[in-house]
Amino acid sequence: MINRSKIKYSLKKLLPKSIFDLILALWQTIFRKLVDILDALRLKRFNNYRTIETAHHGHKFSLFISPKNGFIDKHIFLYGTYEPQILDLLVTYLKKGSTFVDIGANIGQHSMLAGSIVGDTGKVYSFEPIPYIYEQFLDSLKINHFERIVHAHNVALGKENKEESLYVEKNNVGGSSIVSSKGKEGEKISITIKRGDELLESLSRIDMVKIDVEGYEYEVLVGIKKTLKKHKPIIVLEFSGKLYSEKGGTDGGAILSLLRELDYAMYDVEDYMKKITSTEEFLTPFTKEKSQCDILCLPKQHAYEI
Questions:
Q1: Hey, which end of the chain has fewer CB within 10 Å, N or C?
Q2: In what helix (H) or strand (E) does residue 218 lie, and over which residues does it extend?
């Protein structure tokens, strides 16, 4: 099984940018169409709800996947995992006994990997608001026997307690968004949002937080600001620049300002872990060809590790 995402990510880490860009251009113009045809043929066998046994850097776990969920589940069916660059960060920074918080947990890939890493002495707290995705998450939790490790909640996190509409994307449930229905084919559902600080205040430690909430990142960060000040966890954040523009363009800069206020150093995961120093320089590509990226946010005690 060839995982295109893993190959792309590995080459990007190993090769100079100019050579990587050349290889990527050749891939996109010559080879990609052929591979897409082969993938489409393989996906014809993915026609039912099932489990897949997978692993990342030796950490094994099982995951329920469904063709009805679209892109992410199909990607995992084809290649075993999704977002290897984020999974790498979990393997790098989590260890036995760590506490991991997964905000926007989706079907649970990151939470199950985290559970396999932190073990019986660690904890994982996961938040997923879409009811049927949450049920799928629970199926994976049970098949991995993580009931005492992974604690799941069928809510979204934000800066205040309320009910809100979420636009479910038909062809990619992982792209469902509170802030935008633009281009989404699917249904609108009502979800519960809870202020993160209230749900996390009883925890004695938090080592790492993953946030992937499709444009709602600023609200989540404001809602867990006290928690971040108290525990200073490492943060992996999906930065949804295009969605911020649709909201009015203010959230991108506000996110960076808030993280700097909390003494975090920020690095663009996709751009060779380049440190983010200029807000204007970092935000400019999102008004053109770039839609989102992942940011690694390190508190001062970890900044030397990049």
A1: N
A2: helix 217-223
Q: Mapping DSSP to helix (H, G, I), strand (E, B) and coil, where does residue 236 land?
A: strand
Q: What is the pLDDT of residue 289?
A: 67
What is the pLDDT, as a whole number, of residue 285?
A: 84
Residues 62, 132 contacting (CB under 8 angstroms): no
Residue 159: CB atoms within 10 A of its CB come to 18
* CATH class of the domain comprising 47-305: alpha beta
Kindly tell me if the per-residue pLDDT of 159 is higher than 70.
Answer: yes
The region of weakest confidence among 49-58, 62-71, 100-109, 243-252 is: 243-252
Query: What SS3 class is residue 110?
Result: helix
CA distance 126 to 109: 11
Q: Are 226 and 282 in contact (CB under 8 A)?
A: no
Domain with CATH 3.40.50.150 in the chain: 47-305
Give the pLDDT confidence score for residue 15 in this predicted structure.
81
**101 pairs with which residues across the strands?**
125, 209
Please determine, for residue 7, whether its predicted confidence score (pLDDT) is greater than 70: no
- Reduce the DSSP state of residue 54 to 3 states and report it: strand
CA distance 226 to 162: 19
**Which residues does residue 95 pair with via DSSP β-bridges, in sequence order?**
none
Residues in CB range of 116: below 8 A, 6 or more apart? 59, 60, 61, 144
SS3 107: coil
pLDDT for res 197: 98
Rounded to the nearest 10°, the torsion over CA 213, 215, 218, 223 is -40
Q: Does residue 51 or residue 31 have the better pLDDT?
A: 51
